Amino acid sequence: MKPSKWQILKSFFHTRNYTERAALEAHQQKQLDRLLTNHNSRFYPHSAKLQDYPVINKRIFMQHFADINAYGISEKDALSVALKAEESRDFSPVFQTTSGKEITVGLSSGTSGNRGIFLVSPEESALWAGYMLKRMLPRPYLARHSIAFFLRANSNLYTAVKSPLIRFEFYDLLEALDAHIPRLNAQKPTILIAPAQVLQQLAQHPDLAIHPKKIISVAEVLEPQVKTRIEQRFGTPVHQIYQCTEGFLAHTCAHGNLHLNEDMVYIEKDWIDRESGRFAPIITDFNRKSQPVIRYRLDDVLIANDAPCPCGSAFARISAIEGRCDDILDARTANGEPYALYADFIRRAMISDDLIQEYRVEQHGKALHIFLTPDTEQTRAAATRNLDRLWQTLQLRPFNYIFQPEQTRPLHQKRRRVTKISPYGENP
Ligand SMILES: [Zn+2]
């Protein structure tokens, strides 16, 4: 059972913009009331007050999988359905409930073995698709659009968006990029959607001859210098979608600024550092009924931005999605106090030298493993110089550097440029 086009259209036309904060807050309150008094989950309390609900994370969400979802589907059953579909590359993992409803099972491409599983009904897919289209389709809406979408695995969620006006082609990230070029050139997409690193590789590909009107970066942190490179190649701004399995959380407006989708998701801020505006979002999705997402803390670092946007939207702005909480390195001040070193500092240190085209930095205790492209004496010296300067500026204890050659990484592997493998104290 596919989500109906009628439902997608309905969601498309119901999705509106808010220019008044008060109107948005009234909408949110109504949606919260509806969600909290109607959810069908055994895990969550039955209270109309959001504050009565525990703040949970992915670990708790997965531990209570069967009690959280409205159908009592076990994690094991859901996983086996999803894995079977992924192996056969038949992208329609569906679970039949006892009442005959077909629930799509999706896997999140989580790192280090903590994959999430999500359940979505056809109605929820339709709602999501309509909302996504409204937020991302360039105007005029009724023009013909041809979308090229790079994904790790297809799912019913995405193929739902198919109509006479919208052509939709799926490109599998598990295949090599070269193999996709002829098909892309033949499709001539007007909209190109892919993870940042794939957009970057496409931008550098000599045989690519497409001229998309809109480019949308998904699934990974889009770094400013990468954004510029892609924009220069295609001559059009790069937009962003912040979408994870837990929900569609933010999109860029016509002015290229990121706004939280506050009409879809209620977002509480768990402050990491109020001064710099860094927070982890605690999300409550108004529309997920198969598997309610209520007060779910994401392991992501967002940077709040209080400046009003010229687009006039009442949706809160964020200046950036900085990465996962794991991407915050654990440093020490000169006096030995713990110091949270944001990935952004490392990034700036690395890109301040033009010779360094690509980099990856892993913290292993007191050592930083550094992977440079190109990996030469000059780039190593530049990285050393810039990092040394960073410790001095911030008055931190220096790390040891271990330079290693970078290996080719498959496209479907999420790129994390700065990661903490083990914290400061836990390493020889
Ligand atoms: Zn805006």
Automatic annotation (TrEMBL):
Ligase listed as a keyword: yes
GO molecular function, one term: phenylacetate-CoA ligase activity
EC number, as in UniProt: 6.2.1.30
Keyword Membrane recorded: no
UniProt enzyme class: ligase
Entries under InterPro entries matching the protein: ANL_N_sf, CapK_Type1_Caps_Biosynth, CHP02304_F390_synth-rel
Keywords from the UniProt entry: Ligase
UniProt name for this protein: AMP-binding protein
Origin species: Neisseria macacae ATCC 33926
